[in-house]
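[job 0412] stage=complex_fold ligand=octanoyl-coenzyme A status=START
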Amino acid sequence: MLKVGSRFFRSVVNSSNNSQILSVQLARFASTTSGYEHILVERKGEKQNVALITLNRPKAFNALCDGLMKEVSNALDSMENDSGIGAIVITGSERAFAAGADIKEMKDRRFEECYSGNFLNHWNRVSSCKKPVIAAVNGYALGGGCELAMMCDIIYAGDKAKFGQPEINLGTIPGAGGTQRLIRSVGKSKAMEMCLTGNQITSEEAEKFGLVSKVFPAAELVDEAIKSAEKIASHSQLIVAMCKEAVNNAYEMSLTEGLHFEKRLFHTTFATNDRKEGMTAFVEKRTPKWTSS
Ligand code: CO8
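[job 0412] stage=complex_fold status=DONE, emitting structure tokens
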């Protein structure tokens, strides 16, 4: 796998026909995202405007240790500040997206330190990312792994993926959205069944229940997710961010409040150059040139 920051990566960038600006952007991206221990970060897509984060703790089924989650958080910080990135894909391996929080790391923690130190509070970074994030889930997405996928905006699954909230088997409960986000995707009865029994569901079931939007053959999953991310990245980043904010607010608001919020954001697009450009390009039968302004 080609790691951003590698010498090979830099030489590909330097020898390509891309403009100097792209080279500078890539070099900046490389310098801020290399050196991770638990994740791999790459640029993908024809225009290199999709960031791919691969969770990379193969011996532990990508169990989410604190170090891994901090690295995901740092990677998202730099991707958010990089105008050359339009969308992000998070994936794992074919065996596991992530088998949950690292049980070995967690096992000796005491209540008072969890409570006082707000244990896992900073693990929500994915859900506050302004750029669209797609989870490409192969293999196990269990506990915190399922929760991490649900923090993303879109979930695609490989045909052998398994989703579950097995915390009940460990004498605990989901701690990063399993009891809250799951119910909004699959409804109360299914969410309750998954959380109370710890049973896993297949990717076909996950698609049927509305947890994932598409299922692909495992080997094609990441490429398909990148294709979708490229499509998103081809739009105005400013308008994409507004659209994402409007959809996410449906979680938090009543229908009346949500419709009002949507209408105000819709009105706001009329203050942007990209809205004017998009409609003008349609009328002039040409491809719009977005400026994210
Ligand atoms: N933590 C630490 N190590 C793990 C984890 C985990 N969650 N899952 C697997 N591993 C390790 C195993 O310990 C084993 O390591 P070793 O070889 O050193 O013994 C290695 O991965 C392979 O595992 P298995 O031998 O068990 O492999 P199997 O193929 O038999 O089973 C499973 C694979 C089904 C994935 C199984 O390992 C399993 O059930 N894992 C635990 C799943 C689980 O209970 N997850 C929930 C954890 S609690 C949680 O996520 C709370 C969330 C809190 C918030 C998170 C915010 C994002």
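Residues 1-24 have pLDDT under 50 and may be disordered.
[job 0412] exit 0
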